[in-house]
Give the backbone structure.
Amino acid sequence: MKIGILTSGGDCPGLNAVIRGAVLRGVISHEAEFVGFRWGWRGVVQGDIVPLPRQEVRGLSRQGGTILHSSRTNPFEGEGGGPENIQRMLDENGIDAIIAIGGEGTLTAARRLVDEGGINVVGVPKTIDNDLAATDYSFGFDTAVEIATEAIDRLRTTADSHGRCMVVEVMGRHVGWIALHSGMAGGAHAILIPEQPMSIDEICHYVESVRDRGRAPVIVVAEGFKLTDMEAEHSHKGLDAFNRPRLGGIAELLAPMIEARTGIESRDTVLGHIQRGGAPSAYDRVLATRLGMAAVDAVKDQAWGEMVTLRGTDIARVSIREATGNLNTVPQSRYDEARVLFG
Ligand code: F6P
């Protein structure tokens, strides 16, 4: 059995631990052979393949990033794309199955390759934002929350020194899990997430009540948050110099608005890709390793179109279809719980 592994979409601490878990499980338990596709689906489409022997994965679980590299290439687009060409490339290289490690886009493509092309693919969920449905948590999220929490702790001491308001922007394009968890862990005075638009007046109400108690306000905001009363020119940030939609920038917008309305000197900090870099936490290493091992077992069972997933503390399998098409958003009850502590 020869298995090809790919990592696709935005990177995430724990990707290398999945690769190591898969290779070790496959080599030790199933006499499998492994190759890696470089640069995500691009490596599949272009036949950019490297051997992944056991010695290649030594010590990999503690290493950030992905040794296979990643891209946002769609396997249905561009020259060489599409199920027929991909199957031909797999046959030419004697590859029996693909383990695709990725988020919503990657898994949607994986499902289509199974459904439309009969290609042997098993999925592993990957999202730092924790926004994938059908898995309780995804690796990378815990690491990102740790990094964001440490940043909030550090920003608090400088905020206190100067009596300033700090607005900290964390990742989360569509959902606010990183903001919710890091904000709770760091004792933020308000947590602003995409699922819960809020007015600038309400935010300033929290800021002023913190100031009135003689404290320096700390606000955590997810990059996809929108003000209910956001003016049109601020609601869409347009395209960057490479014609890509601009992401984030909400903290930069909020800090001066808060200062203008409350008179409290305010600063913004955007954590950005720091949240995706460096070594995974111990929790993420364990979760990623278990998912990698389970993915190889799924290949052995020919569970094509299925994804390995975390259910409670167990690793289970679900149809990739269940994991795609709708996001894992922050439930109202979790936000209400956090909101008790605002202000
Ligand atoms: O989806 C993961 C994520 O990290 C988002 O939180 C963020 O908006 C986006 O990727 C950044 O993408 P890129 O690495 O392409 O700038």
Observations:
- The chain has two domains: 2-139+280-325, 143-276.
- The pocket of 6-O-phosphono-beta-D-fructofuranose is lined by residues 10, 128-129, 171-173, 223, 247, 276 (CB under 6 Å).
- Residues 41 and 74 are 6 Å apart (CA to CA).
- The mean pLDDT is 95.
